[in-house]
Write a structure and sequence with these properties.
Helices cover about 20% and strands about 35% of the residues. By secondary structure, it is an alpha/beta fold.
Length: about 290
């Protein structure tokens, strides 16, 4: 068995997604040495959009990456809530200049890939951060005054502190709890396509949220307004615990096909070959 020890007085972060990289950057800027392990062979993010309010953009500003993200982000004028049955507006929130002035930082929407990229670039440029890919963590141990992490390739890391940023099915979480994620019975379909291919209901200046019975649809532009992001979520009537045979495209059609034209048309902007079952990780009593 090979043994790799991260730099002295180090923090080891398992997971190189948005959360893991942001954590690494924050610790390094405070003077701590950080090592990040990513399971995938290369750092990357899912193809999807993300909404970031002033609480989040304030953090990105403090980390020094907000300006870089702003080059590709979109700053909407409004967030509009629509009735998915009647196709009528319910309410709208102005998130433009006055909103930014009140809260000190902007509300923006971005491609997750763009957000991940600016964080990754900043981490790569920081002398106190080291990054490794292709590292599948198989075991973690609490050493009282530190932690030991073992990977599938036999490498072992002994560090002063460990952070688990390894997602819903976290291996690090096993140190604290043996619980399992709980399925919400909801499933999501996503789709990001060129704005030129969007339907007539696409809105370049607003984030549009359609709400209806056991469903919602969120739509907004990303990447300088060149792409249109769509996320459709609905509760599956055929959910069976332990089964993967639920929430298929036929259920998407049945749910969205009964709603207004704007929602029905959105089905053509979704990737139908992949779905995301929605799970929750319940709160645990201790995090250390």
């Amino acid at each position: 068995m090979s043994r790799t020890t991260a730099q002295p007085s180090s923090l080891l972060i398992v997971g190189g997604g948005v959360g893991g990289l942001a954590c690494a950057l924050a610790v390094a800027q405070a003077g701590g040495r950080v090592h990040v392990l990513e399971q995938a062979p290369a750092f990357g993010e899912v193809v999807a959009g993300i909404q970031l309010g002033p609480n989040a953009t304030a953090v990105l500003d403090r980390l020094g990456v907000l300006e870089a993200l702003s080059q590709d982000a979109v700053f909407p004028n409004r967030v509009v809530l629509m009735d998915a049955v009647a196709e009528t507006p319910i309410t709208a929130l102005d998130v433009g200049a006055s909103f930014r002035e009140r809260y000190g930082h902007p509300y923006l929407v971005a491609h997750r890939v763009d957000l991940h990229r600016v964080l990754l670039d900043a981490c790569r440029a920081h002398a106190l951060i080291t990054l490794e890919t292709g590292k599948t963590v198989t075991a973690v141990e609490d050493l009282i005054d530190g932690a030991r992490v073992t990977c599938a390739d036999g490498s072992v890391y002994e560090v002063e502190a460990l952070v688990g940023a390894d997602g819903l099915w976290s291996t690090v979480r096993r140190l604290l709890s043996d619980d399992e994620p709980v399925c919400s019975r909801y499933v999501a379909y996503r789709g990001t396509l060129p704005m030129t291919q969007a339907t007539e209901h696409a809105e370049i200046d607003d984030v549009v949220m359609w709400a209806g019975p056991d469903m919602h649809l969120v739509q907004y532009p990303v990447r300088r307004g060149e792409l249109y992001n769509n996320v459709a979520v609905f509760k599956s009537p055929s959910y069976i615990e332990g089964s993967d045979d639920w929430g298929g495209p036929e259920e998407l059609d049945a749910c969205f096909g009964a709603l207004c034209r704007g929602v029905r048309d959105a089905r053509g902007m979704l990737l139908r070959h992949r779905l995301w079952p929605m799970f929750d990780a319940l709160p645990i009593g201790n995090w250390t």
